[in-house]
Amino acid sequence: MIKLMIILLIPFLVLLSQEDEYKQARYEMVKHQMANRNINDKSVLDAFRAVKRHEFVPEKFIDNAYEDRPLPIGYGQTISQPYMVAYMTEIIKPDENHKVLEIGTGSGYQAAILAKIVKEVYTIEIIEELENEAGKRLKDLDFENVSVKNADGYYGWQEHAPFDAIVVTAAAEYIPPPLIKQLKDGGKMIIPVGSPFFTQRLMLVEKNGEETKTKSVMPVRFVPFTRGNE
Asked: Which CATH class is domain 68-220?
């Protein structure tokens, strides 16, 4: 009887051990890759501790999920470096009452991080397979305040505009005018701008009435912003 109980417990203990291992890795990621590199917003750090990055990467990369680098997710796309996701999240100054638009859902990780902080997240993915996978993943993980759509992100999501903030996770050659239009007065957008496959600039856009102020904050490398006719 005791032997049988031990055999039945083994799978549970293995799963528990794995989860504990990932939890430690997640907390180490937050400490060394974020808090030690001037990511200070408590809500942002708490979100990264809560969201399990290994659930947003392909199975073969699970053991690499908490490393300080992007990882491929298929279809020529990547899940961004954890620090970059944290930086782009913090710089828009997310608030619990905010409505945020994300362009480039990918695996859904950035949307999940935002969903832990803000009231509503609307995210657009142009690759239908990724949109389907991310939508199912976010639903299965109970991110009920995230809406996912398969569309060309250049045009934003007019039905739900204006947005308090917009996060773009692919490099555009210029800032799409429809996104600026859908940004709320006083809102912020973070977007990589530049030619594909070259170093781009991460730009912070702030809208004040009819005026839009842009500021280059750092050099980056992102996958290209894919359009519907490409």
From this structure: alpha beta
- The DSSP letter of residue 198 is S
pLDDT in tens, 34-57: 999 999 999 999 999 999 999 999
Tokens of 129: 């397979």
Predicted confidence (pLDDT) at residue 13 exceeds the cutoff of 60? no
- Distance between CA atoms of residues 21 and 16, nearest Å: 9
Amino acid at 21: E
Residue 156 phi, psi dihedral angles, 5° rounding: 65, -155
Beta strands in the chain (DSSP E): 71-74, 77-79, 99-103, 120-125, 146-150, 163-168, 183-193, 200-208, 211-220
Q: How far apart (Å, rounded) are the C-alpha atoms in residues 126 and 226?
A: 7
User: At which residue do the structure tokens 């100054």 appear?
Assistant: 93
Q: Residues for the chain: how many in total? A: 230
Q: Does residue 194 sit in helix, strand or coil?
A: coil
The one catalytic residue among 17, 43, 80, 107: 80
CA distance 121 to 71: 23
Active site residue 216: no
User: pTM of the entire structure?
Assistant: 0.89
Helix (H) or strand (E) holding 12: helix 2-29
